[in-house]
Every structure is written in C-alpha cells, then in structure tokens.
Design brief:
Length: about 200
C-alpha cells in the first residue's frame, strides 16, 4: 500500500488535496483586498492574544485593539472576554456598544450597529450566506454571498440569539433569548421564537 501511494505521488506530483487547497486560496485572495487580508491576520493573531484578557484591563485593551480592525467602533464600547470577531473591517458600530461573552460576529457582508446596543452572550450574527440553491457546484466549494445586517439604535439582543444576513433590527426593539431572526424586526417591538415573531410592542 505504501509503495502504491509512493508511486501515485511520483506519477502525480501535485496531490489532489493540494490542488483543492490552492484553488480555495486563489479564490480567497481574489475576494479580499490587502487591507482586508491584513485585518484578518490581525484578528487571528492579535485577537488570540486579547480575547481572553480578564477584567477591566481586558475590556480596555480590546477596545483599543478593535478600533484598529473595525470600520468604525464608537466611544465607550465594551467587548467582553471570549467574543469572536471576524472580518471586522465590515463592522461599523456606534457608541456604547456592549458585546457579552462567547458571541460571534462575522462582518464580511457588512454589519451596521447604532448607538446604545447590547448584544447578549452566545449570540451569532452572520452577515453572509452560501449560494446553497445552486446545485452544480459542491457545497464546500461555493463562495460566500454578502448579506448586510443593520441593527438600529437602542436595541437589546438577548443571549443565544442567531441573526442571519439581510435583516434590519428596528430602533428600540428587543430580541428575546434563543430567538432566530430571519426577517426584519419592526421598531419598538419585542420578538422571540424560531423563527422570531413579534410578541408585543414596547409602548
């Protein structure tokens, strides 16, 4: 078996897995500018160093660090431990944003966040999707399709919420814990459930 594998490698010096890897790398480089590539690397290595820092010092260090990678990060923002931010070059956030533990934000499709927004723990906000309706290409070879998310001012997003791309969460709204948001949320409403629906108006 070892001899057969060795002979295969001599006949085909470029391994099929390497070809797939090179294809994915080529597509990745075409989709990202130099600034985006630098930001992604900063997030990977710098984010690894600052993500787990405890206490007030950790919050201060993360605030300074993510001002470098965000499109914009407003004043007095609080990013707690273990928050995973990727493609943050696409995140434009207002002042007094707070993001709690273990939350994931992927900004590759664009995320606009207003002022005074609270995002609870273990929440996932993904501003992209895969071209899953197209059946002629293998699922793991489909590119990402950007789907911007807008979160307006004075919004509270509870814990364990999932927000998919392409939605707007209206001003003054509340998203209950465990909700899956697949459609726009009207202003000043409380939504919950899977998929999220209006439970009641706030006033």
């Amino acid at each position: 078996m070892l001899a057969q594998n060795f002979q295969f490698d001599l006949v085909n010096p470029i391994h099929p897995h390497l070809c797939i890897l090179m294809s994915l790398l080529s597509r990745f480089l075409k989709e990202h500018s130099l600034r985006k590539l630098i930001t992604i690397q900063l997030e990977e290595y710098g984010g690894f160093l600052v993500r787990g820092l405890p206490g007030l010092m950790g919050i201060l260090v993360r605030g300074v660090f993510y001002k470098l990678t965000f499109k914009k990060l407003g004043r007095f923002s609080l990013i707690y431990r273990s928050v995973q931010l990727t493609h943050s070059y696409g995140i434009n956030a207002g002042k007094k944003l707070s993001i709690y533990y273990n939350t994931v934000l992927d900004g590759r499709g664009g995320i606009e966040i207003g002022d005074n927004v609270m995002i609870g723990p273990n929440t996932i906000i993904m501003s992209f999707n895969h071209d899953h309706m197209q059946t002629t290409t293998a699922m793991n070879e489909k590119g990402a399709v950007g789907q911007p998310i807008i979160i307006e001012d004075n919004v509270w997003i509870g814990g364990n919420v999932s927000i998919v791309g392409g939605v707007r969460i209206g001003k003054g709204s509340v998203v209950a814990a465990g909700a899956v948001v697949t459609k726009d949320v009207p202003a000043n409403t409380i939504v919950g459930g899977v998929p999220a629906k209006v439970i009641k108006e706030r006033v």
